[in-house]
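Q: Convert this sequence to structure tokens.
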Amino acid sequence: YPYVTGTSVVAVKYKDGILMAADTG
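A:
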């Protein structure tokens, strides 16, 4: 998905943030 790379990266960043928040919570 070369044309969705940017969106995928953003989604991964949000996912990582959520996972980190869940772990710290």
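Residues 7 and 13 are 10 Å apart (CA to CA).
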